[in-house]
C-alpha cells in the first residue's frame, strides 16, 4: 500500500469511528480498549530503548503489580514509569475542554511527562553523567555528542528557547496544509533533535507524540519493537528533511490500533467493519480475506476494494469450519 493510500485508509477509519461508531471513546468510557493499548505501548516503546521484558512480563507487572522473571530492577521500573506516564497521556484523549486556553501542549506538560516516565527508574539507577539539577523533569545542563546519523543537538543553553519554538510548531499542526501525519512526524523528529533531557528523550518524545495525537482525536501510535531499525532510519531521514517515511510509519501505527483495538470494541456483532478489525490469533486477516473472496465468509466488498464483514458472520464462518472438520 502506498503512502497516500495509507493516509486515505487512516482518514476513512477515523471518519468511520467519528461518524458511525460515536467517536473515539475516552478511557473512562472504554477502559478495556485503552488498557490493551496501554500494555502494548509500554512494552514496545521501552523495548525500542533496550528493555528486555517480554509482553507477558509487562502484562503481569502492570495488571498484577508482580515483577515476574529475573531482570534487573531498573528494567521493571522503566516499564512502570513509562506506563504511569502513558496512563496520564491517554486520560487526555478526546477531552478538549481540559485544554483551557486551547494549547495542544505546554512546556509544563513536557516536563511533567518526562518526570513521570523517568522517576521510577531514576530512583534505582540514575544516569551516571547527570548533574544535581538534571534529574527527571529538568532540562540537560551540558552538551551531548552528535547522533549516529550526524545530527548534533543544540547547546544546553539553547534547549529551552528551542523547545519553546518547537511548541509553536506543535500549535501550528491544526493549520498545516500537509496531512496531519506529516505534521506529526515533523514535530516528533524536531523534539528528538532538541533532545532536551539528559536521558529518556525517545520515550518522552513518543509519549508527547501520542498526547498530541489523542488531543487531535486519533488513537495513539505504537511503534513496534520489531520496527525499531526502520523507525530509527526514518528519524535519520527526517533529520535530513525527509519526513515522509516517518509519517507513513506513524500513520500505519495509528491505523493498526484503530482497526485492531478501537473498531472491534465499538462495533456490535452485526455491524460491518474492515476484515482487519475481525482478525484474531486463530484466524488471520489474510485467511478472512481468502474466505471472503471464495464466498465462504459472508462479506461485502466496497468500491475501494476493501472487504467488510461482521463479528457474527465471522463466528458463523468459524463454526462452519469446525462442523466440516468434524464430518471429515
Automatic annotation (TrEMBL):
This is Fic family protein. It is a single-pass membrane protein. Keywords: ATP-binding, Membrane, Nucleotide-binding, Repeat, TPR repeat, Transmembrane, Transmembrane helix. It comes from Cellulomonas dongxiuzhuiae. It is found in: Membrane. Residues 105-256 form the Fido domain. Its main location: membrane.
